[in-house]
Fold these 4 entries.
Entry 1:
Amino acid sequence: MTAQVKNQSASAWLMLVSRTLLFSFFQSLFAFALILAGRFTSWQDSARWWPVGVFLANVIGVVLLIRLYKKESARYQDIFKFHKKTIKSDLLALLLIFPLIGALGFFPNLLLGRWLFGDSLIALRMFIQPLPLWATIIAVVLFPVSQGFAELPVYFAYVMPRIEKQTGSGWAAVALSGLFLSIQHAFAPLVFDYRFILWRGLMFLPFALAVGFLLKWRPRLLPYLAIVHILMDFSLTPYFLGA
């Protein structure tokens, strides 16, 4: 195995856990800042800042992807190219699969919340809490937009094909990428309540695996799914504003 291949192998596994590590780092940083400001009463105080932490993690993730693709003589922005020759068939495939993807993104969230808390609104109130105006702007604008450029590209454009190449198993690559995409949510924010951890860690597992299988079958759907992802995260806007 050449040095370049070894570096690519290590980079794929590091990127697999990078977002989870970054989410934890930024929440710890917010907790430390609150301690210095004399406004820290519990770890929960740092949890409300998760949209800012995710946005910062997204920025770092995009920078890392740009550098990693450049090392492979490729371009990060190329993964967002629309293929003109297949745009009609790609849109048709997306329209056909969209109801399933939407259901998998919505119902596990609701059902897990009811099962674990008795009322999904309890989990939602723990998840979205009041923020100052500047942080609310990040939550409703920069957070959702940056998600489209970072989350799916990290797990399914960069990590998944490289793990498949290393393991020789496309299904293992889909499963690992989808699993880590789902689990990362338990760290955004990290709240030390087992019900909340289960809710956040599992709520997107069916959605993540479905998207992984879809992108393994047709990788060129990534730019369309990135747009869908942005719109899904924009749906949180009323809750942030309400908080």
Entry 2:
Amino acid sequence: MNPAPPTTVPLRPGRSWRDIPQEVGADALSGKGRRRQILAWGKFGATGALAAALGWGGYAVIHSLETDRAVLAGAGRSEIVREISLITDGTLTKSWVTQVLALPPNSNLMVLDLPALRGRLLAQGQVRVVVLTRSFPDRLVVTLQERVPVARVQVEDGAGRPRQLVVAKDGVVYDGLNYDTPLLASLPWLDGLKLARQGEGYAPVAGMEAVADLLNTARVQAPHLYRGWIIVSLARLAGHDEIVVKSQDIPEIVFTRRQEFFRQLAQLDYVVDAARSQPEAALTQVNLALGSQVAVQFDRPADRFKQTNPTIILQPQRKPKRDL
């Protein structure tokens, strides 16, 4: 008996054996494939664990550096502080710095609380900027930038005795240590202000930047005028933007902070020169707060101006810088 011929299944045009669904479950994977999958998952898990360990280790190190100074002391090659070096642009001394820092005996350089020590120095008004640096193995370097005094002010101490303080450009009031006597004597006195207590000292004086600008401009550009200035009043500064100066020759000179101080000093220099030609009539007031005009008052009428009123309005020409 002849066998039946094979049945032929016709294929649709455009299809092949690749179109037949081939679903292979996990059970169909070979042993080698399963090992590769387990190894891949193991590597991923190990990488994650390593990253977590590194992160925690970094946090622990930073936390230890910030909080446990004893660990730092043991890890570093620092020793007991044997020297304090001072670098300053002013007049403060190494002995003064040592006294203010007041380091305990046998202080380890690495254990020093630098922010706290910096605060002690900044609490002294004469100090404007402080930088503390450890110089291994046993030296602390202190770098200071000091304030510069521009005026003096007189107060009373607890016993009612007069006490001289100095004021810087930013209004800070402080003792002023180790300044030369001629320097202090050249500073004008401040008047027309009320100092307010702040901690163990005084609150900064408002408006001192404008006052310092006037004083520095006069000292540099018109020293012959500045040398005679005795008192600078701030009484009209807040309300009228005016600074009143009393000099040896003129009882009242009014400046305004709304205009350039150099221009006002040039006007003042012109008026002073003009008044010298009339010695019988002394200047009692020069008001420079009127812009291009200058109000000048004499103790009696000046003949050269042909006026009967002792108050005279001038329009001085602005002097060039070289003439001041």
Entry 3:
Amino acid sequence: MTTVHAVVNSKNPDTTIIKQAAEIIKNGGLVAFPTETVYGLGANAQNPEAVAKIYKAKQRPADNPLIWHGNSLQDLQSVVEFSSLARKLANAFWPGPLTLVLPSKVSAYAKTIAVRVPSHSVSRAIIAESGCLIAAPSANSSGKPSPTKASHVAKDLDGAIDMIIDGGAANNGLESTVLDLHTGVARLLRPGGITLEMLQDIIGEVAIPQKNELSLGLDGDTPLSPGMKYRHYAPNAPVVLVEAGQAMLIANNYQKKGKTVGILETSKYKSLEIAAKELFDRLRQFDEQDVSVIIVETVPEEGIGMAIMNRLRKAALKI
């Protein structure tokens, strides 16, 4: 397969390119495009053959669910049941990086569907032009660091999908927060840019799974959300997590053993938001450098720090 590459202005995307992408999706193909979180690999969510292509292109485990994207609550209420709690959260955070796991109305699908409304102009334009709900996991090979640039997508999927739209670097750099509401109780499944504190400000209590479920993803046989069951976000080299300020010391020990070391000193970033935005890009850079081991400093698990540590623990997990 020859993959079409196109570049757009993320704030004012070329309508010709958007129409081309929408036609591909309407005809059952795959398009990678930027969202405010990471690059997504989109297909018509209600076309089983198109969805199967996502799993094949990514080499994604068949029981790892996908997130369905629409442009409004109204777009999505035909496929899921919105409780008053879900509507309250949607009104507060959509469009934006919050995914809600809700009871499914689609008899042929699972009992729940994860849904969200993206805020990125390119993803919204493709959804509107295609007239489809779009299933869009991260546009990378399964298990690898998520793509925050079109070049990351091309590295993993060029020749395996129909089109890659380059809209520049993703704004947030981490996947959406996932909140399970299908039982009527809010349960955090994956932390992200909508932080635990932000959720609590709107709805009060939010259940947090045990650390081995949340950070390592061992949440039973059938996950409700992407990022829960399998190893994710992992570069080729093993990731070693150390306390802030200890990276250089630990790296020196590995270098004395003849190892080439990649070092990510998160304590030197001006903010955790910047660290989050650059995390996956840095991990991919270490792959390009073919290092033997990657040393990464941990961060406080407050605000976006919870999401950063979730991704780092998954990257360091050996399955």
Entry 4:
Amino acid sequence: MTDPAAVSYAPIGVVRGPYRRLDGMPLQTAAAAEVDATVELDPRVHGALRDLDGFSHLWLVVHLHRVAGWEPEVVPFLDADRPRGVLATRSPRRPNPIGLSLVGLRAVRPGRLAIRGIDLLDGTPVLDVKPYVPLFDARDGARAGWFGAAAGRVHSVRSDDRYGA
């Protein structure tokens, strides 16, 4: 593969939530279903919020600004028996520290989104917001790979257990 050109993005907002440190922060939104937060948005995108209030959930595409470095293999918190390829995990330590969080939308307010179910640090830059559309996003017969055998642990795991999802 030839080297592609570098890519850069300007955040459109920032997460404001209760987690200031990685210790104690949920590693997936399923482990934080009742945790409220907001996304403060840049004024240039305020008009882009039109019609968003009809959705129950949103995908937040974020820059994991506190992640340093990456490895091709990680030992996931759900499967500490062996290393896995990082691209087969939800580890934040990836070639590019881009995160994807599915959150509940509580309200659309001027300049901000009230959300629920957050697994991100306060101050996390938001690159994009997309509506969750079950027709497009849910798949019949979808397989969960190695996660299937360990899924029961996800609701109770926090980052102090292991930050290597």
